[in-house]
Design brief:
With 480 residues, this protein is α/β, with parallel strands linked by helices. The protein folds into 2 domains: 197 residues, Rossmann fold, CATH 3.40.50; 251 residues, Alpha-Beta Barrel (TIM Barrel), CATH 3.20.20.70. It is built from 17 helices and 20 strands. The longest helix has 20 residues.
């Protein structure tokens, strides 16, 4: 569809202010793209921001009549603000994280349960950011049927949102944008073809509306397939979390090795043997009798060699100020070498705040212990629910849970299950075991954590491969 002159001029203005760039860029998902959109820059161009808000308002007339609008954080917030003021329509603000004082609300503004709200976004790729905002608005009793976006990258976002009950109305598509820029000599034929090929090769496709199967006088909707690790990477706000989703798919492994040995040489030997089969190696630094900086360096070298992440199973559980020092200082200096750490939520959100204060700037991530595999564990019920709420509040740092089940439906998080072996059972100290199939298929977690069954085996490599195959095949079956 050919654009009118005003929209052509808008595209050229966005290009001139470098709101759209061409070259080789790493996207949030980790994928290399020939085109990158940084529309945050429009806040420095008030006239252009008003122009963008006006065209979005025009396209919003296709939506069902709404009572309020809500911009997806952060780029769409100023755009939605201008739309609100210019058209006298109430605006709601969605927070990325809750305040730890006052009302602690994630949605700010005046609204009533059942109100229809229009979501505003700048760019849509997979549709995950829009849907995340939709879900939060729905949690507060609002109804969302439509969303508007300036640029639709044509990588599956419109279809995916439609599948979830949200109609996306776009001003410009990627094809229209590059066509205009080629027409005006801003990009050449080679770049034009590169971009369109990238779009075609990198779609986030999901099944369309669930198939309807006749059943006498009734109809039954066939459940849609679950999102893949690659698709879920788009939902994750933490860069390391996104990397882990991609690593799992690249290595075809959702196996975590629990290297609970007490001698550094034994750990390094084991890790070198099975490192190609795992996506994470989990350590307990405080049980290593000969822990040294040299051991850490050798473990990091193995992580590069075999492409896995390092998870220090420290289980922080103190006040924020104390865990900050435990993480950053002391003999082990965990922050210097562990990609991932974990924490109990028993002491409240301060434990996450303390870890995040020093860990986020280092590109680290945290897991919360929502459930445990030991008999008689108190980590259940309201405790687990409160833990999930904390994770949602601090999702830029928290990437998931140690749990026996998928403790919430939010697919931005990873769910890691300890106590897994090839046959169900329990040990003499109350550890309860499930199989990879039960963990991944029945309980819908994502990764299995295996220790003794691998490092006590006569052939650790072969046993690790058995666990890797069992866990990844269960994942493939779940998404099929």
């Amino acid at each position: 569809m050919e654009l009118d002159t005003n929209l052509e001029q808008l595209i050229l203005k966005l290009y001139d202010i470098e709101g759209v760039k061409f070259g080789d860029f790493k996207l949030k998902s980790g994928i290399q793209s020939p085109a990158y959109f940084d529309l945050r820059v429009i806040v420095s161009y008030p006239a252009l921001m008003r122009e963008v808000s006006q065209v979005l308002w025009q396209v919003s007339m296709k939506a069902e009549k709404f009572a309020s609008i809500c911009g997806v954080p952060y780029t769409a917030l100023p755009i939605a603000s201008v739309m609100s003021v210019d058209n006298d329509v109430p605006m709601l603000i969605r927070r990325r994280e809750a305040k730890d004082y006052g009302t602690k609300k994630m949605i700010e503004g005046k609204y009533n349960a059942g109100d229809l709200c229009l979501v505003v976004e700048d760019v849509v790729t997979s549709g995950s950011s829009v849907f995340e905002t939709v879900q939060l608005l729905q949690e507060y009793g609002l109804v969302v049927k439509d969303a508007v976006v300036l640029l639709e990258r044509q990588q599956g976002g419109t279809e995916r949102l439609r599948n979830d009950g949200v109609n996306l109305h776009s001003v410009i598509t990627m094809t229209q944008l590059v066509t205009v820029l080629k027409k005006h000599g801003k990009i050449d034929e080679t770049m034009y073809n590169r971009v369109l090929k990238f779009v075609a090769d990198n779609r986030f496709d999901i099944p369309s509306q669930p198939a309807v199967v006749g059943n006498g006088d009734t109809t039954v909707k066939k459940a849609k397939a679950e999102m893949t690790f690659k698709e879920r990477a788009e939902l994750c706000k933490n860069e390391l979390g996104r990397r882990l989703f991609g690593l799992m798919e690249d290595k075809q492994s959702n196996l975590i090795l629990s290297a609970d040995l007490t001698k550094s040489e034994d750990i390094l030997k084991l890790v070198d043997i099975v490192g190609s089969k795992v996506c994470i190696v989990k350590t307990h630094a405080d049980i290593i009798e000969d822990f040294t900086v040299d051991f850490v360096h050798k473990l990091q070298d193995l992580a590069k060699k075999h492409n896995f992440l390092i998870f220090e199973d420290r289980k922080f559980a103190d006040i924020g100020n104390t865990v900050k020092y435990q993480y950053n200082n002391g003999l082990h200096k965990i922050i210097e070498w562990a990609d991932i750490v974990n924490a109990h939520s028993v002491s409240g959100p301060g434990v996450i705040q303390g870890l995040q204060k020093v860990g986020l700037e280092k590109g680290r991530a945290c897991l919360l212990i929502a459930e445990m595999s030991s008999k008689g564990s108190l980590a259940k019920g309201e405790y687990t629910k409160a833990t999930v709420d904390m994770a949602k509040t601090y999702s830029e740092f928290v990437i998931g849970f140690i749990s026996q089940n998928r403790v919430c439906d939010d697919q931005q998080f990873l769910y890691m299950t300890p106590g897994v072996r090839l046959e169900e059972g329990k040990d003499s100290l109350g550890q309860q075991y499930v199989t990879p199939s039960v963990a991944i298929l029945q309980n819908k977690t994502d990764l299995i954590i295996v220790g003794r069954n691998i490092y006590n085996a006569e052939d650790p490599l072969n046993v690790a491969e058995e666990f890797r195959q069992a866990a990844y095949n269960a994942y493939l079956k779940r998404i099929s």
